[in-house]
Amino acid sequence: MAFEAFTLSHVFEKPFHPKDKFNIQCVDCHPPNIYLGTKQGTVQHLTLPSTLNSDPSPAREGNARKLSNSPVLRLRLAPPFNHLLALCNRAVTVHDMFSLEAKPGFKKIQNVAQFELSLRDDAVWVVTCPSQRRLIRLHALGADRWDVLREIALVQEPVELAVEGDSVCVGTGDRYLLCDLTTGRREELLQHGHGSRRQVLVGAVAGAGEFLINGPGGLGLCVLASGMCQRPPLPWPQDVLAACVCFPYALSLQAHELQVYSLLDQQCKQTVRLSGALGLCSTAGGALVFTDRAVLRLSAVPGRQQIQALVREERLGEALLLLEGGHSLHTPEERKELQRSITCRAGFQHFFQGRFTDAKDLFIEGQLDPRELLQLFPDLLPTLPADFPPREEHRAAARELRELWRSDTDSELRYLGFLGDFLRAVRDGGSPAAAEEADSALLWLYVRTADSDGLLRLLAQPNACKLRACESILVKDGRFFALGQLYRSHGKHQEAIQTWVDIVDGVRRDTSGAEVLGLIVSTLSRLEDRDTVWTHAAWTLRNDQELGVQIFTRRSAEDHFPPEDVLALLETYPRAHTLYLEFLIYESSSEEAGHHTLLAQAYVSLSLQDPEDAETRGKLRRLLWDSQRYDVSAVYERLKPTPLHQEKAIVLGRRGDHIGALTLLVRDSPDTTAAEEYCLRLAGQDLLLSLLNIYLTTEGRSTAALDLLNKYALELSGEKVLDALPEHWSVQLIADYLVGAMRGTIHQSRMRTMQKALEQARLLRHKALWMQASHSMLRLDGTQSCDGCHNALTAPPFARTAGGALLHLDCANHSATASPLCAGPHSDA
After folding, report:
1. How far out from the chain centre does Cα 235 lie?
2. Strand partners, 109
3. Residues in Cβ contact with 373 at an 8 Å cutoff, skipping those fewer than 6 apart
């Protein structure tokens, strides 16, 4: 069935009778009233039984009145006043719309070739074209009179005109003009070049501020009152008799047919066959076409039916264009629903033809329910609800598609790739529609295409996969690592962990997830079910202590397990035990003495197990130096039988036995610099002297003592050093020390002398300023004011700063910068 924008029905037909002369010349309409003007000078009133577009019944004949023997060339209605205006015998007359009687008080407007009405909110204007005159005349129409308002001169005699608002479009013998009725300004639009005056057509688009004209070369042009064209031209025939606009369509009438053009894409949408058509009259929601003895009605098909017809014919682009452009045809809710439906249907067109980019964009724009796409894939049918209705119009195309997939694997992979792209786009867009089916389909797709990375990414995030259906898919394909992820994403942590434990223990084989143990730890560290954590913690520690301890160290601060319980569990796992103690002390800032003591003892044990482990010994030393919480006696007892001499020395120092610590470092430690570093860390001069004495009393350490003297000549007191040195050491042996010590002493003496001289100079400068200020005279005459409080100096006692500022004595005493260099007795106030 061909697309129909309008339906044709008969409104009125005058039966033929040889003696009855009745030939329709013009028509005008104001529903439910239709008025016919005949060539015999008669006006015929018709009444429709209902509104023009809802009832196909023919019109009833009403009054008829003979106006003249000349044809009635034009009828126009002014409903605000119930006026009927008729152009007959080159004169415009006014009649009552219902009785057709002439209105008294209205004089005929003589010598009129054409006229047109403008129904405004505040007035009714009549524009007339005087015969053989190059002007148009504007009249104001009232209830019982009319007045001439303005004349607008033209370059040529007008042939046809139309009025819209304040603008009038005039067609002359070779051009079209625009005139402003309020200002009288005129503007030439274009030259048409029509050879016949009958081809000069002008129509107003009611309420749009637009005119429809028959342009040159068989083009219908829509021109705004500003003179601009906002639409492309309509390619209609050359021999157009009449034209009008019924948005979003333009109707062009010829003798034997009427063509319907879309103003949205300028294409001819419908052709209505007619016989003997003479003219066209625009109405609300359609148009009237009249022949010599009949009137036919073109009624617009409801917009939804038009769009559905285009969709049935697979003219989806036209349907969308009509939907977008024909806003007045639908309610906002209908438009939104239709747009989604048509957009999705257009997407399926592209999908079946393999144009995936266009299909994806249209599916997303139309908010396609993913299930409508999933039902095309046989393997996904079990994931869909049993009551989900299939698309009947896709059945044939779906069968062809499946046959193609059976014979062409590459084609199937391309369609599967598109399915994945679309589902990911829907998922990323946050669409909640059919989330379970969409995520389940994605899981199946990743398994089907062996995309392990995509599968794990899906399951690592919150998802809406159907648990039982997806569980079956993963088990069937041996994806046990992903199965655990599926369990975990659905809150089944016990099942997830047990599945991964089976993989590690070799019960189930799956190489797709290399970090199974790490994932078990990550899950346990966030799990609130403590029974499950304790159940699997020991197993994890047996496999990897460093990973296993993270079950307890990665937990949130609010969810930590009691440290004593954890330490009890970790007693048989020394590496994990040490790491947990480090976590308690350095991250949780534990001040428990037991924790610090246990960590120190653990470091000792690890250092003894691997003497080459410098990192652990470094940690032990830092702990012994920095911590104030460990049990010194317990740690020393643990260190005492070990060869960890530097560590024993640190603990002895913590007990206050620095001499013992230094003696241990000098006599037992293989590191010759350890004792020196010990003294420097504690920053004590006495310790350096003690170390010197130990060196001097220890056999074979004379060279170390001499090096210590030379290195720390400034820090070691010369008097105490000389008392400690053996008597048999010569001056030449300690010459370097003596030179260094004397140089330091002399330097310090000179610095003290220089500082004393600078202070004396400063004192002299202040004395000079004081003397200068105190021996000068200052007259106080009541005009001076205190620079501190800005009040007048009215009494002799005052103070003056070195800079010359005058202050009250109280202000000077409270000022941090002022000093009273002179006082009242030195003035002559």
Report:
1. 44
2. 92
3. 351, 363, 419, 422
Summarize the confidence of residues 797-810 as an average pLDDT: 80
Task: Give residue 434's pLDDT.
Answer: 81
d(CA 208, CA 516): 70
Angle, alpha carbons 413-414-418 (nearest 5°): 115
Q: At which residue do the structure tokens 């010590």 appear?
A: 741
Order the strands of the 33-38 sheet from edge to edge.
24-30, 33-38, 42-47, 60-66
d(CA 821, CA 802): 7
pLDDT, residue 648, reads 93
Measured in residues, the chain has a length of 829
Contacts of 469 (CB under 8 A, 6+ apart): 382, 383, 440
Rounded Cα distance between 72 and 509, Å, is 98
Distance CA 394, CA 376 (A): 9
Q: Are 139 and 168 in contact (CB under 8 A)?
A: no
At 818 the pLDDT is: 46
Which residues sit opposite 24 in a β-bridge?
38
Which residue carries 């196909």 as its tokens? Answer: 56
Side chain identity, residue 535: T
DSSP tag of 785: B
Residue that is written with structure tokens 């648990």 in the block? 467
Neighbours of 557 (CB within 10 A): 7
Q: What is the pLDDT of residues 731-773, one digit of tens each?
A: 777 777 777 777 767 777 888 889 999 999 998 888 887 777 6
| More confident call, 332 vs 529 | 529
Residue 177 burial (CB < 10 Å; 0-12/13-18/19+)? buried
**Is residue 55's pLDDT more than 60?**
no
For the CA atoms of 822, 823, 828, 829, the dihedral, rounded to the nearest 10 degrees, stands at 130
Instruction: Give me the pLDDT at residue 712, please.
Output: 82
Torsion angle, alpha carbons of 275, 280, 286, 288, to 10: -70
Q: Return the sign of the alpha-carbon dihedral for residues 535, 537, 541, 547.
A: positive
Amino acid at 27: V
Nearest-angstrom CA–CA distance, 34 and 52: 10
User: Residue 280 pLDDT more than 90?
Assistant: yes
Q: What is the mean pLDDT of residues 708-719?
A: 76
Q: What six digits make up the tokens of 802?
A: 């070195």
Q: Give the distance, in angstroms, between the CA of residue 138 and the centroid of all CA atoms in the same chain.
A: 56
* Block residue for tokens 């969308």: 320
Q: Rounded to the nearest 10 degrees, how much is the dihedral formed by the CA atoms of 658, 661, 664, 670?
A: -120
- pLDDT tens track for 644-655: 999 999 999 998
- CA distance linking residue 47 with residue 35, whole number of Å: 9
**How does DSSP assign 97-119, residue by residue?**
TTT-PBPTTPPPEESEEEEEEEE
d(CA 689, CA 694): 9
What strand order describes the sheet that includes 219-224?
Answer: 202-205, 210-215, 219-224
User: How many whole angstroms separate alpha carbon 419 and alpha carbon 400?
Assistant: 17
The pair of structure tokens assigned to 439 is 């995520």
Phi, psi of 146 (to 5 degrees): -140, 155
For residues 336-352, average pLDDT: 85
Q: Which of 464-473, 661-670, 738-747 shows the lowest mean pLDDT across its residues?
A: 738-747
Please report where in the chains the tokens 């992820």 appear, as a residue. 485
In this structure, the dihedral spanned by the alpha carbons of residues 264, 270, 275 and 281, taken in order and rounded to 10 degrees, is -30
Please give the backbone phi and psi of residue 381, each rounded to the nearest 5 degrees, phi first. -60, -35
Question: In this predicted structure, what is the pLDDT of residue 403?
Answer: 83
Partnered with residue 167 across adjacent β-strands are 164, 180
CA atoms of 161 and 116, how far apart (whole Å) = 7
Tokens of 207: 């309420």
Q: What is the pLDDT of residue 669?
A: 82
Encode 559-589: b = buried (16+ Cβ within 10 Å), e = exposed.
eeeebeebbebbeebebbbbbbbbbbbeeee
For residue 468, give the 3-state DSSP assignment.
helix
